[in-house]
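RETRY 2/3 - previous attempt timed out on the joint model. Re-submitting the same 627-residue input unchanged.
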Amino acid sequence: MPPVFNEKCTACFKCVEICPCDVLREGDGKPEVAYPEECWHCGSCMMDCPADAVRLELPIWMRPVTKRVK
Amino acid sequence: MAAINAADHGAKVAIMEKSHTERSGAAGTGNDHFWFYDPEIHAGRGWTIPDMVRDISFDGEYGKTKEGLMDQGLLEIVAEGTKEAVDNLESWGVKFRYNEIYPWNLQYDAPEGEKRYRIVPQFQSEWDTLNYDGRDIKKRLTEQCLKRGVEIYNRVSGTGLLTSEGRVVGATGVHMRTGEFHVFEAKAVIMATGMDQTRLFRAQSGNWFNSQSPPYITGDGEAMALRAGAEVFILQAGKTRNAGFQYFRNLSRSSGTATTCYPAGRFVNSEGETVIRHPAVREPLRKCRENVEQSIREGKTPFYLDWTDATEEEIRYAEWSYGNEGLCWVILEIIKDLGLDFRRDAFELELEPTGRLTGGFLALFIDTDCRTSVPGLYACSPVQFAGEVAAPTYVVLGWRSGKKAAEYAMEAAESPLDEGQVKSEAARVTASLKEEEGHPWQEVNTELNNIMEEYKGYVAGWSLPGEKAEISRTGLENCIAQLEKLKEYKMRAGDPHELVRCNEVINLIDIGIMMVKAALEPEQYEGGFWFLGRLVEGEPEFRKTPIVIKYPSKEEA
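RETRY 2/3 succeeded.
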């Protein structure tokens, strides 16, 4: 469940500070998703990460349905 | 904006913020559009502020859907304040003017060498909406607050208003991570808690946290004001008349179907036939529903948002808009991760069922000085109907409420807090944390949704669109009985975070009870679908007849 933190994370915890839904907490060396069901997938953690260490992994049922045109 | 201007008028200001001021609310991850009036641009085009207000609330394509039921007095104040708001935001580092202006922007004369606004049409008859770099607008506002010495209490969720002899003298809150109970002594309080009571009704997506509006905007401020006796505005549930689109399929985000994809997007049916050329306002969705409905009749569904015929320049502009609109920057990142591209892929849209029952909402009722009916309590959001032009309303009324509240505070007498009131509030809002047994907040919230879904049917009717059904008094009375019983269930919070979620649900139940009781007022119902009422000794009292604020149409004027 989102967000996912990669090896670039410096444990600055900016994401924990600003998460609008309050789903993140300081973990051991990197942020932890304490309330995964309450993630709004707003992307604030990605936007404000100074190390480009966060990606969002959408649950299958939230992924847009598309059709390849070109 | 309220805090900044209150500080500029000499007040000592503290902000209680449940989230974090840098990224909170619907504009937390940005805003790319701003309804505005600039006399230097619009007066020369024969467009006045009354024209603008009449258009959005009465005469224009969008206004016709509102049937005049918007507060034109407030809207006029909002329109008048937009230029000053833009100038202020610009001086604080929000970029509004550009060297590059495109064919799809309003072309207007500007002094040589001066950068120009990117003006686009939106829901109005005139070009009066700015596109701008609004992604970090909340950060810029936070910086200005800190520069003025405003104390910011992030993660403190407002719980109650403290009153003395009928006026507001303070407020309380609880910290979402520590559980600490906060007490603020204040001569004036401004509610700026945002539109919607997001988890009052069942989520359209089926999941509370897959929503366009922030899932943590749960009417806390409105419930606080309601319990303090403030008069509130209630919009009853309604019914959509036509088929249309709301979001990308599965993903309830802003602007899959709104104007953020202007000028690149068009809506196509399953055969690739264009149903709507692009989702800008000159071709509003409502006007093009015949095309949508014809495709449905012919079985040419689903529908898609398709940018693939757009030029690279148009796509880059639309992507820039996405990058600045709330919840949309992340869409660009998500589709990149999923290997998708607006240049090659069409995105399926969620089709809204005809006659879908929509929920209502409750807001504070204010006068043109942003005063509520309780002395010392001011509000800028949510307030009656003016929220239809959300961003400028909150910016302009925020600014105005800050000034008015500061002026009031300078004159108001000192009033000591009632210790008994503080203790009683502390016990009430921390109760769930102390319970050894109780229901999780999700269980109670789910049942609240079930009851409110029933209410929607009883008040808006189960019949087909266009057929008026009588309200079911028995059904509504059953809803009230169920809501009151629901309020008696104990909830248990495992930590302070869950405690705040429990308190949100209690606030939502209080709002639900008020909303359903309003629906039982036949005089109000016959007059339309909005109500003014307040709690008197715990029971609602409604104005005998609804107040209808109707601005005259241009012909009548």
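Residues 69 and 550 of chain B are 6 Å apart (CA to CA). Closing ticket.
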